[in-house]
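Translate structure to sequence.
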């Protein structure tokens, strides 16, 4: 998710890809995800420079990292620089100037956090010909393993979840009861009574619990997406895979927004079907969806973009697009389609040949509308002329593509936003800015990407209709989910050619590309299907604790966005390490989950 005040803070404080500092000494204060590179030049006739290229930067130009002059006297000239360790780097050690230089040697590899690395350049003879120049690569200080904290937390969380989910099942196992009786050497009768009481209590609770048509899997899915969203918005421990991808590619942070949009579509299908069965008039549905859309847009513009820590609203640089604005518009389009096309009764007929695709054929107007909408996205993306840029450009611009299209960030998507909204009213810190050295603003919640957001919600809408049509035949629901997941996965494989950069349409969260929608849609069907099987079919898990924020999603999202900079959600850190940041972000996320739990206990649910 993109919250302007948080992203600007990250970009200014912690997201500088290379901070160059030249000095004669080698002692620099390293920050998180940084390493120190020291160049030692022992040549008396040549200046030496290091050029760098990030492995994640696609077709990028080499950039100057540092420069060391000729050796004066007997002491080599030293120059040092701080580099990011997020992605592997390629170093080229060269002599000469920026426009006319010769490569002596090159190194490719990953550099560890807080590591110190020295590169020595020397000659085997006094004439210092290029053929006689050599480089030595030395690790002066070993890096630390920054992944230990996240590994420990992962093991602990998996263990706690496993214990919580399986405790009732284990209690009811006869072999477990016999084991406890023999191990503790207690009277079998008393222990059997205790274990039987636990088992009977669980069975009694299930028997007396009223059967609800509300899907716990859907609420839990929503809560899981929201919990991860809060965690990554708070920083995700500053691990790169909890940050958005610089441009093409997919990280954990890139999954939560489309999951949320998918759930919007699924919830719309279920809720509108239920309201029509209660004979709610369609005009009333129209008023309801219009009110909800207006509230989401207002919250997004006035509360999320301008929290207490930001200060008064400045209309000169007010960001018009945003997360809630996109969710509101997406919901409006999907809900309006359902208001016009939803059916009171949608049951399959086993004696009809077209029964397996009934939920698709009966809604043919919606499919035509979505097809037209996607054709519009394809035409604008690949056919719209963009001044100074190649038609159909999907790159990040900047130093990418050999620097040929520096001002073409986002292609048609960026051009449309700047044309209709103005450069002062869109996002100015895109995720590609640091890595690709871009200068153009680009909004990841822009106008063109919203079309594919509607497509994602429509895919979720189909999941809801599958549940309506085939319930209570649960295995038919799972079979349909699997078919959709496989179909979307195959489309993604074709569009991307199973690569990050070389496909027809790469996976790109900033652009909300078609392959991004099909890929995350595939994951959504798989995850919802697993949760449906575990919670609604087998009833092995009640969804705790994710179900609590899932039933108060608006409250948690708005609250965490506005109060994220205040204690106990954040505090001043002493060591500024991954472990400390991870602890802070986990505590902040856990506090919101606990608040959602308290609201659940009080039966308070904020609805729009």
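Result:
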């Amino acid at each position: 998710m993109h919250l302007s005040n948080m992203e600007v803070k990250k970009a200014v404080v912690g997201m500088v890809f290379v901070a160059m500092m030249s000095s004669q000494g080698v002692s620099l204060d390293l920050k998180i995800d940084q390493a120190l590179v020291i160049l030692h030049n022992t040549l008396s006739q040549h200046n030496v420079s290091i050029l760098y290229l990030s492995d994640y930067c696609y077709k990028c130009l080499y950039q100057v990292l540092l420069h060391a002059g000729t050796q004066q006297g007997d002491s080599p000239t030293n120059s040092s620089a701080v580099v990011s360790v997020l992605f592997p780097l390629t170093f080229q050690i060269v002599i000469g100037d920026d426009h006319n230089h010769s490569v002596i040697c090159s190194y490719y590899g990953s550099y560890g956090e807080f590591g110190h690395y020295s590169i020595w350049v020397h000659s085997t003879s006094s004439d210092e010909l290029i053929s006689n120049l050599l480089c030595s690569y030395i690790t002066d200080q070993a890096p630390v393993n920054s992944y230990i904290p996240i590994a420990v937390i992962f093991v602990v969380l998996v263990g706690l979840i496993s214990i919580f989910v399986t405790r009732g099942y284990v209690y009811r196992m006869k072999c477990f009861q016999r084991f406890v009786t023999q191990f503790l050497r207690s009277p079998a009768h008393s222990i059997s009574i205790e274990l039987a009481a636990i088992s009977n209590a669980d069975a009694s609770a299930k028997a007396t619990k009223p059967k609800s048509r509300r899907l716990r899997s859907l609420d839990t899915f929503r809560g899981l997406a929201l919990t991860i969203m809060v965690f990554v918005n708070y920083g995700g421990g500053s691990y790169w895979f909890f940050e958005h991808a610089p441009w093409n590619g997919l990280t954990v942070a890139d999954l939560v927004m489309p999951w949320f949009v998918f759930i919007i579509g699924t919830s719309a299908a279920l809720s509108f079907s239920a309201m029509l069965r209660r004979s709610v008039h369609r005009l009333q549905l129209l008023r309801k969806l219009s009110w909800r859309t207006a509230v989401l847009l207002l919250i997004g513009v006035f509360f999320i973009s301008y929290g207490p820590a930001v200060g008064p609203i400045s209309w000169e640089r007010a960001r018009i697009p945003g997360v809630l604005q996109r969710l509101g518009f997406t919901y409006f389009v999907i809900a309006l389609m359902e208001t016009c096309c939803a059916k009171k009764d949608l049951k399959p007929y086993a004696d009809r040949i077209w029964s397996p695709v009934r939920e698709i054929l009966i809604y043919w107007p919606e499919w035509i509308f979505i097809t037209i909408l996607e054709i519009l996205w394809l035409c604008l993306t690949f056919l719209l002329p963009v001044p100074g840029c190649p038609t159909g450009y999907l790159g990040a611009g900047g130093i990418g593509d050999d620097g040929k299209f520096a001002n073409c960030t986002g292609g048609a998507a960026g051009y449309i936003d700047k044309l209709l909204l103005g450069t002062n009213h869109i996002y100015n810190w895109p995720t590609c800015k640091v890595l690709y050295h871009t200068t153009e603003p680009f909004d990841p919640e822009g106008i063109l990407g919203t079309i594919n957001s509607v497509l994602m919600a429509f895919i979720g809408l189909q999941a809801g209709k599958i549940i309506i049509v085939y319930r209570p035949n649960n295995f038919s629901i799972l079979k349909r989910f699997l078919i959709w997941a496989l179909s979307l996965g195959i489309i993604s494989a074709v569009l991307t050619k199973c690569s990050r950069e070389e496909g027809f349409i790469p996976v790109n969260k900033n652009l909300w590309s078609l392959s991004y929608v099909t890929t995350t849609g595939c994951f959504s069907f798989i995850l919802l299907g697993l949760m449906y099987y575990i919670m609604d079919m087998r009833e092995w898990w009640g969804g705790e604790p994710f179900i609590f924020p899932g039933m108060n999603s608006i409250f948690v999202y708005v609250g965490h966005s506005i109060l994220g900079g205040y204690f106990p959600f954040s505090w001043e850190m002493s060591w500024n390490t991954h472990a400390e940041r991870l602890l802070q972000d986990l505590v902040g996320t856990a506090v919101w989950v606990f608040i959602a739990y308290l609201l659940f206990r009080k039966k308070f649910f904020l609805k729009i």
